[in-house]
Amino acid sequence: MAEFTTAVFQNEFLPDGGTDVNAIVTISCTGAGTAGQSGSGDAGEIIIVDTSGSMGPATMAAAKDAAQAALAEIVDGTWFAVIAGADRAMLAYPPVTSGPALVQMNAQTRQEASAAIGRFVGSGGTAISTWLDLAGQIFASVPQVTQRHALLLTDGENRERPGRLDEAINRATGYFQCDCRGAGTDWQVAEIRRIAQALLGTVDIIPRPDQMRAQFQEIMRASMARGVADAKLRIWTPQGAQVLFVRQVAPTLEDLTDRGTAVNPLTRDYPTGAWADESRDYHVAVRVAAKAIGQEQLAARVQLALGENAVTQGLIKATWSNNSELTTRIDQQVAHYTGQTELAAMIQEGLAAKAAGDEATATTKLGRAVQLAAETGNDEATSKLRKVVDVENEADGTVRLKRAVDKADEMALDTASTKTTRVRKDPTGS
């Protein structure tokens, strides 16, 4: 049975008149087990492969091989289906036209699905909204499937009227999770990131066809290891308090602030999706009414809830003090993740400015990104930034844009911008 623990990292001391409390809440899970085997419902997997005409022979061959390799990672008994996506979505497997559109994995269905994937041929355009909508319909056809995950691969830009993809994303949000991968460099990072972030998944580039198989296997293994089907981050705040923001800050950045749903007037639930054996960090900021020097207050209670039951909790506190040595200290965790959040913004904004031809803004923002990556110890970001800019002074963020940059390197920097690094922790309370 899964076990959860919580640790809180904060400076609880506020100066006279202080109102804003920041904390990093780390939630860890052990004993998660295997997807669909916790007794809370079955697990379902859908593999969605771009079969549009833009998929060249090498990419299509790699996609077939990768999808077949992903099938091998799906645990027997798991419900699954395969979608071929072009300007419309087609249920490639199982071969049904009505009734349940998922089948359970076993040796025979794995072989049949693999054969269906082997028959994929690239043709048509790209309409990703239809892929997401069909996935939702397929999951809905088997009500006992309560843990729903999709793996989506595309190699091109979505070709639909403005707004249609966002409408489909909205329909899928909260219903299934989706990890997204882009093959090559003809797809739009921002577009696919919107899908992944809304559907609590990941996004990354697969620059070369020979890298596809390993990524698909890794994604499916990770999904199969999520034995906790769904959990909510439940935050209580006292009367009159305001939640300023709620962000997952590790292992990736995800802003959950606008995704809270009311449990009661003082409590909101924020989605976290399925869990494996892992730790996640959340940055919670709360504004409370200022109190007199020496007074203490519980600023927030942060729980992880499975259904209606809270399985772990941490307390965020506020204490008003006139000791400046206490009130001016910034918690190491809060400072670190504040920097990581700014780093992601600087990378994305800098690349957008570069694409728009605004080299001055791009240089400034990517220079700040280099500085932040060094300060927060994000070696992956530093390495990827150095493929896009020439660094003259890392400490003060002085850089020059490289004249010739491989598009894949820019896209790799963009997709990795929301991946964060951790620092060693010394909890101040829990």
TrEMBL record:
InterPro entries membership: VWA_3_C, VWF_A, vWFA_dom_sf
Annotated ranges, domain VWFA: 42-220
Species annotation: Nocardioides silvaticus
Protein name: VWFA domain-containing protein
One Pfam family linked to the record: VWA_3_C
Gene3D superfamilies per record: 1.20.120.1690, 2.60.40.3670, von Willebrand factor, type A domain (3.40.50.410)
